[in-house]
Amino acid sequence: MLGKVNHIAIAVPDLAAATAVYRDTLGAKVSEAQALPEHGVTVVFVELPNTKVELLEPLGEASTIAAFLEKAPAGGMHHICYEVDDILAARDRLVAGGARVLGDGNPRIGAHGKPVLFLHPKDFLGTLVELEQV
Amino acid sequence: MLGKVNHIAIAVPDLAAATAVYRDTLGAKVSEAQALPEHGVTVVFVELPNTKVELLEPLGEASTIAAFLEKAPAGGMHHICYEVDDILAARDRLVAGGARVLGDGNPRIGAHGKPVLFLHPKDFLGTLVELEQV
């Protein structure tokens, strides 16, 4: 069922500083910052040869990233996103197996304009898992 | 400088249960478990089309994974490993830029039989970063 790792997301308190770490210190290719108010984040994409790292800074009051950073003020790995061919089939299989989907259980349009779901970390080894239909 | 994401490591308290989550619930291809006593872990590789997830269970008394799990008993994302062409050149560039390398600063042979270094999470957005020469 699982396809590629679409991205690994890292929550950061200061996006400009985090971008400099990846661009200047680690020598990676990074995108311009993009504000995504409907997702409560500003994001910079770090483009690696086989996948992406996404640096997420909170945007707005209700950002889930802000809550994460209260517990980990320096930042940290926030979630991992796997690609799936059919997100509804994936959801139905997971729910039938007892896994919990966050929110109302229906896909919403994610930061890349494609349908996504988030799975409960307690069912996936303490790791927040995003599924994205590609 | 940064090449591919070689793997994303997830620390888990129960490797058999974690393997079942990835194999049965998520439908991914997983390896047999491999004990790596010199690294203080037993590992299962989850093979995705573009990279790997490594499930790490503590092995032995001095495992750094055990310390991680004391703070996150359900498990969690432990580190991200990036490939580099020349680990000594990478190390020298990072140290010159003020970043801290864990241990004595010299590469050791990692779980894949190749030279690796770990970088201090405080210098990399709260994320433990492994570099592996490939």
TrEMBL record, chains A, B:
Chain ranges of the VOC domain? 4-134
The source's superkingdom equals: Bacteria
Instruction: List the Gene3D superfamilies.
Output: 2,3-Dihydroxybiphenyl 1,2-Dioxygenase, domain 1
Enumerate the GO terms in the molecular function aspect: methylmalonyl-CoA epimerase activity
Coiled coil regions, renumbered to chain: none
Concerning InterPro entries, the annotation shows:
Glyas_Bleomycin-R_OHBP_Dase, MeMalonyl-CoA_epimerase, MMCE/EMCE_epimerase, VOC_core
UniProt EC number: 5.1.99.1
Keyword list (alphabetical) reads: Isomerase, Metal-binding
Question: Which SUPFAM superfamilies does this chain map to?
Answer: Glyoxalase/Bleomycin resistance protein/Dihydroxybiphenyl dioxygenase
Q: Mind telling me which Pfam families this protein's record contains?
A: Glyoxalase_4 (PF13669)
Which family is this protein grouped under? Belongs to the methylmalonyl-CoA epimerase family.
**Name of this protein:** Methylmalonyl-CoA epimerase
Gene assigned in the entry: mce
